[in-house]
Amino acid sequence: MISHPSRHCTVELQALPSRIGQVRRIVSAQLRYWHLDPLIDRAALGVTELLTNVHRHAQPDKMCTVEIELLLDRLTVSVHDHDPRLPAVDTMTDDDSLATCGRGLAMVAAVSESWGVRAEGDEGKVVWFALSAPAAVGAGTSRPPRRAGGERSGRVFAEIEHAVDGRRAEHAPARSAVAG
What we know:
Layout: E1 6-14, H1 17-33, H2 40-57, E2 63-71, E3 74-81, H3 104-111, E4 114-119, E5 125-132, E6 175-179
């Protein structure tokens, strides 16, 4: 029996370099909370590449929404932006072997079981990738067990600072909503 057949997390942000790192940490923390530690590296790499594409290519703005959803044994990570233009995967030639860009979607394809793009007309597009979740995830609880006697974990969590006064509009903090 699966106690939590669907788990969902959404983060809205502007795809700026500083925000991309924050979202990568949010995704990693959420997967750790869901006991999906084996997927953290691949999910973090994939979401970084998708958000970097929004930062580099999306028009008219850099606003986007990142969603991660665990449905049974499949984790889907998607990024929705407002640019209706669909991405193209370039085939690399020997002349491109030293290129520093143009490999993001190829890396997403390499680390995921599947990926794709869903056009949403004037609303933009959604680029997504999927990873197979470990089989034991559905059988467990959604929360880690409590430690006895006030015992502390050895984990160190990074704190994210947000400047409140004098912050520019394009540096608005990411917003998130987590279910499950």
